[in-house]
């Protein structure tokens, strides 16, 4: 049993595009491999179990909570990823807002203090819903008490679009890097950020190793 | 004389061993310089371009170790991953040559994916409670081992403090321990000597910050972090700053020194050598059991009463 009360938990969400384009070129497999590596990293670092909870949301035409917020070290089987369909950013932002709100309330009710949640948002394509629609959902998501969003553009996703999604940092994969390799490197970023955040007791985003991504200036 | 700086071209490099926020660590298969001692296993830590280390500060650290006599140098090498030389790339300081972490500070659990992995035995594995460890198949430590490791840490900090070193950042990942050997400090390329700047920006972990020195790090904040480490290791709690939470494991007689160590007034904090002497005494209990009956005995149950996930 834990004795919460004093502990502060950092909720972390991996939000991943699972539209039809993720079926090609081993992209979805790369996401699954990255989740396995993340689970193993959490398992090897007990401090993460103590300080962070991790959830996974997938989106295409609709959005789904693939893995509810949890101590990832306790997860034996990771969810299957079945890409297919459109790319509705609006659906992703709406589900994420509802999920973050419910998770935060539950952690608080359990006696934890809760850091501002951290979201890693990965997309390989442009949204298929209308910009005013997803922009409105995005505004609701990042409003007061909303999460910080680190956004990654890979494949056909445009830098300017993900820059509008990001609230803290935005990384754009270089065109000469295969999308599956870029996804693997995003997995490294998530792992190192999760561990660093747990070690420092706050939100720490460790950027990707040089070579595969460019960071956009959000100002 | 062995040079203070080594060019990348003189290194025979092997595979990348790890990547971190500041750069990557690469195995060194050999250093092709006349007179370079071939006996030590080394690694190269190459900084990311954004880190931009101060070459003079790095050289100071290399020079500090070499200025010690043989005994002092052996003592440092036993407890600290201390830079052997500055590494140059295109004529600029871009990394450091470090000793490889001794095998006693690693262990090889089986990961959930099934493979054996070699993992550094970090302070987090000493603080983590029995449930967090059991879930991972990692053997728990007994109270005597934890006191012995803490005594080793206090000795290492005392030794370095007496020689003008400031540790700066103590974290659950940069202190390694071994049940048979003691402690081993990582990230020593980020340390500084009193009165000088560190080679690279020292992180200040919010969970370990010293309320008296929110923006700076010095030997007094090291004392605070040493006391916080003693508290958290004995209480098996990653968060606590409350001395009472270690009372069961520490014995009430040690509460005053713990309170002093965590005092907001830096002048009240005991030096690392006071912790060293006290913990070494605890490590070797007096052979007459009668003399210790008034000290609450550290029990496994007392330790399990705390956060363990």
TrEMBL record, chain A:
It comes from the Bacteria. Gene3D superfamilies: von Willebrand factor, type A domain (3.40.50.410). Residues 11-194 form the VWFA domain. SUPFAM superfamilies: vWA-like (SSF53300). This is VWA domain-containing protein. It comes from Actinophytocola gossypii.
UniProtKB/TrEMBL annotation, chain B:
Residues 281-309 are annotated as: Disordered. It comes from the Bacteria. SUPFAM superfamilies: Protein kinase-like (PK-like). Gene3D superfamilies: Transferase(Phosphotransferase) domain 1. This is Protein kinase domain-containing protein. It comes from Actinophytocola gossypii.
